[in-house]
């Protein structure tokens, strides 16, 4: 007799856990505060951690520790693998009573609801102001997790930091900011007003030099030559930069001829989650303030 595989056993268990998908509500909230939370979305992961909740599982944790940095993820959190294709068998084994997701996971929403109730974030949904949404959703998540007071503190601390930085920039008057992330030696990704970074600039009363259209992820991929269209802007490069790109750029006549590079109006920021919540917003504002007020501008 052929024994069933582990995959078959997990699939059978998953099928028995809940009724058919059509009978399940999307984004259903448990009556009591969840005690075992899993997060497939990084904005929700960092927000839960900032509220003092340690999830049982999260996605791409090695990359998170390198690119998101803070809040730190404890070692005991199970890694579900890629954000784009989380390991649902492992998620099932962690036995969550709530899954924190987002609009990015529409394609697997029904499969997630077979495991546990799902809370869906729209912080970084298209055509919005992610920072403003993050303020609201932090309060909602705090209530859902029984951390309403911690959520209020996080919101108040974030707003206090934003106001402090806004006053700093009001005195500094840095001019328009052109935010980019390097794609390759010829292309960058710019961030519009509907991105987390862009909405933080708005909160800080800073002008976003990119006013053209953005795409689904609130950014636009453009050729490096287009950076010359805003010669008055300070160019802010948000890491990480792909391997091998920096040596090519430093010797590129096109890059060196850009007005911001030639004038030394180039700032490099350490990695920040561009699709985060309030923790990412605060990290971005802190780093931007530190680097624009005499930290590490280079050209």
Task: Please describe what this structure looks like.
The chain folds into 2 domains: 111 residues, Nitrogenase molybdenum iron protein domain (Rossmann fold), CATH 3.40.50; 133 residues, 3-Layer(aba) Sandwich (Rossmann fold). The longest helix is centred in the middle third of the chain and has 25 residues. The strands form 2 sheets. A 6-stranded mixed beta sheet has the order 8-7-6-9-10-11. With 299 residues, the chain is an alpha/beta fold. The protein is built from 12 helices and 11 strands. The protein is globular and about 55 Å long. Strand 2, helix 3 and strand 3 form a beta-alpha-beta unit. Helices cover 39% and strands 14% of the residues. The N terminus is likely disordered.
Keywords:
about 300 residues, alpha/beta, Rossmann fold, 2 domains, six-stranded mixed β-sheet, five-stranded parallel β-sheet, 12 helices, disordered N terminus
